[in-house]
């Protein structure tokens, strides 16, 4: 049997006295689309940070395709195939859109160390950056500064950055939060169209988006998993209705 | 660089080439210093303008390179061909050590670099049997390679000009390279570069060492110009001035540090000839820059040009 794409074992993260993540164990199969839901402050983002290496957990372990990565730096995990977006758009504000994408393209390879030739000497980078922007509908703005992008466009660029670091497992932290209905539809369609060989783990508040995309849904509450199941099972569960739908 | 930029660069080049025809020795000396300290400011700005790290120990690399070359030339009669590279190596080795400061960020990085700078100044000052103490090392000859020797300050000016132009061209490629883009990415968002696979500490360390190498080059050029070196060259004010030059001229640009160097050295020469409070004047210039031209002179000029273009468009 092939190992799961992501395996999290008894993961705990404490901030001072607060247990934001409290002994979570989780397994996501290769190719699966998993959605995490749960009220604000449930610990979803913190769990993401610990899996991708942005934060180191207080206890527990993380494995990527069967390989223990708990001790590896974030950059190493990215090189091994993890990619992510941030809940609050984290893009390179002083650079052009194309430069943003180039940074994503060269991040996991050796080319980020090239010092003796300008970026322009590598036409494939420019071409792939434009393709990446085309994919999220921002190609026309390739040479503008990110400063001029709207909130929604930044969300799209955020997604493009993650996609162009060529991930095998992609973590999306509320990709549609704060978007207009039109933008929301566009992004969720794009996520739905991602190839199946990319394993997807996504935090999403919008139940329509979440249940439309997910193979399985995990519900978090106060740092713990209270339910895991198919979208239909989760929707039908009275406890989930209580802690989650009650809050929206 | 736009058409205007290229035009300005060519005009500056033409002036620089013909300058010795109409400028006297005093002015030639000042301009040579402006070029050398502009190079030091450029080295500081490789960190400040490209990576966002605010270093205040660059006088250390500058001085250690200058001392190494001077001591080898004067005391051991080592030829320029070895003494000058040895200066570069010594300054760069120091940067390899001091570069570990990139493990810290923000105000801690600033404080550590200040402390490291004071250590170097203290050693040069105190270890007088080797460094000459306050008197430093004197009687450094003009550089010479075999029969080829620089015989006058004018010739040396042309040599410095050639080195500075070569450095500017190399620097231009460096900051346009994938490595340079990575540095600007780290400056804009270190968390994002990490999550894209960058070991940001290693990138910053590499930038720090390159920056130390450039500061060392300025130090070697300086010692052959000045003909002597003393602990003042390693002192904190030199690091501060180099940083101010970059900020006042325009951080993140290539011309900026040289423009800033021209302004600061020019002011120092002019003001200190009749006014005791040179430091006060520098403080006022700095505050004025922060208030009215936060992107330095280069930024100010760009803003004015953009405003004029907008007015034309209306
Ligand atoms: N860096 C931090 N320091 C202290 N507390 C934090 C930090 N990050 C998150 N928290 C706390 O941890 C809990 C979980 O937060 P988070 O993971 O962002 O929740 P979610 O993404 O599910 O809304 C919250 O109570 C939050 O206030
Ligand atoms: Mg969150």
Rg on CA atoms of chain B, Å: 20 Å
The class by helix and strand makeup of chain B works out as mainly alpha
Q: State the CATH superfamily name of the largest domain in chain A.
A: P-loop containing nucleotide triphosphate hydrolases
C-alpha Rg of chain A (nearest Å): 18 Å
Chain pair sharing the greatest interface: A-B, 37 and 26 residues
Largest sheet of chain B: 2 strands, antiparallel
| Strand numbers in spatial order across the main sheet of chain A | 6-7-8-3-9-10
The beta-strand count of chain A equals: 10
Low-confidence stretches of chain B: none
User: Which descriptor suits the 3D outline of chain A?
Assistant: globular
Strand order of the largest sheet of chain B: 1-2
List the helices and strands and how they pair.
The complex is a heterodimer of chains A (248) and B (314).
Chain A: E1 6-15, E2 18-28, E3 33-37, H1 44-52, E4 59-64, E5 67-68, H2 74-79, E6 82-84, H3 97-106, H4 123-135, H5 151-163, E7 169-173, H6 181-192, E8 199-203, H7 207-213, E9 216-221, E10 224-229, H8 231-236, H9 238-243
Helix pairs in contact in A: 3-4, 3-5
Chain B: H1 3-22, H2 25-51, H3 58-75, H4 80-98, H5 106-126, H6 128-131, E1 144-145, E2 148-149, H7 153-176, H8 178-188, H9 190-195, H10 200-226, H11 236-249, H12 255-271, H13 278-292, H14 296-313
Antiparallel strand pairs in B: 1-2
Helix pairs in contact in B: 2-7, 2-10, 2-11, 2-12, 3-4, 3-5, 3-10, 4-10, 8-10, 11-12, 11-14
The complex binds adenosine-5'-diphosphate and magnesium ion.
Residues 44-45, 87 of chain A line the site of magnesium ion.
């Amino acid at each position: 049997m092939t190992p799961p794409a992501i395996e999290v074992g008894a993961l705990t993260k404490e901030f001072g006295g607060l247990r934001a993540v409290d002994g979570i164990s989780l397994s996501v199969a290769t190719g699966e689309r998993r959605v995490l839901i749960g009220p604000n402050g449930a610990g979803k983002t913190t769990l993401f940070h610990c899996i991708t290496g942005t934060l180191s957990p207080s206890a527990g372990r993380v494995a990527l395709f069967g390989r223990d990565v708990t001790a590896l730096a974030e950059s190493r995990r990215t090189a091994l195939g993890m990619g992510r977006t941030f809940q609050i758009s984290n893009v390179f504000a002083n650079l052009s859109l194309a430069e943003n994408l180039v940074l994503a393209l060269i991040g996991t390879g050796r080319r980020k160390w090239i010092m003796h030739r300008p970026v322009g000497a590598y036409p494939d980078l420019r071409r792939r950056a434009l393709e990446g922007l085309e994919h999220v509908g921002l190609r026309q703005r390739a040479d503008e500064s990110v400063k001029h992008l709207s909130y929604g466009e930044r969300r799209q660029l955020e997604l493009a950055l993650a996609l162009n670091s060529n991930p095998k497992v992609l973590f999306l932290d509320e990709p549609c939060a704060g978007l207009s209905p039109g933008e929301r539809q566009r992004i969720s369609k794009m996520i739905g169209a991602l190839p199946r060989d990319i394993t997807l783990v996504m935090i999403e508040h919008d139940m329509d988006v979440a249940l439309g995309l997910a193979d399985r849904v995990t519900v978090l509450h106060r740092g713990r998993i209270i339910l895991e199941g198919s979208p239909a099972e989760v929707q039908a569960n009275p406890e989930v209705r209580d802690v989650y739908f009650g809050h929206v | 660089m736009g058409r205007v930029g290229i035009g300005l660069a060519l005009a500056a080049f033409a002036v620089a080439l013909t300058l010795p025809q109409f400028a006297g020795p005093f002015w030639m000396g000042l301009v040579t210093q402006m070029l050398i300290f502009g190079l030091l400011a450029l080295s500081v700005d490789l960190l400040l303008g490209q990576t966002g790290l605010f270093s205040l120990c660059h006088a250390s690399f500058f001085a250690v390179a200058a001392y190494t070359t001077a001591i080898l030339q004067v005391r051991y009669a080592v030829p320029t061909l070895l003494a000058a590279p040895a200066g570069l190596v010594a300054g760069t080795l120091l940067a390899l050590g001091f570069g570990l400061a990139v493990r810290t960020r923000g105000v801690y990085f600033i404080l550590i670099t200040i402390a490291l700078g004071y250590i170097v100044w203290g050693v040069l000052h105190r270890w007088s049997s080797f460094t000459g103490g306050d008197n430093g090392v004197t009687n450094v000859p003009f550089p010479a390679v075999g029969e080829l020797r620089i015989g006058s300050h004018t010739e040396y000016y042309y040599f410095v000009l050639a080195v500075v132009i070569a450095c500017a061209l190399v620097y231009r490629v460096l900051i346009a390279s994938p490595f340079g883009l990575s540095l600007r990415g780290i400056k804009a968002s270190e968390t994002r570069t990490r999550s894209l696979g960058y070991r940001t500490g290693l990138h910053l360390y590499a930038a720090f060492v390159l920056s130390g190498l450039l500061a060392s080059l300025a130090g070697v050029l300086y010692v052959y110009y000045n003909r002597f070196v003393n602990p003042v060259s390693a002192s904190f004010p030199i690091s501060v001035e180099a940083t101010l030059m970059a900020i006042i001229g325009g951080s993140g640009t290539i011309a900026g540090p040289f423009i800033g160097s021209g302004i600061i050295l020019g002011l120092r020469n002019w003001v200190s000839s009749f006014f005791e409070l040179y430091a006060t004047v520098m403080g006022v210039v700095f505050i004025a820059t922060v208030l009215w031209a936060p992107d330095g002179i280069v930024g100010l000029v760009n803003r004015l040009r953009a405003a004029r273009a907008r007015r034309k468009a209306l």
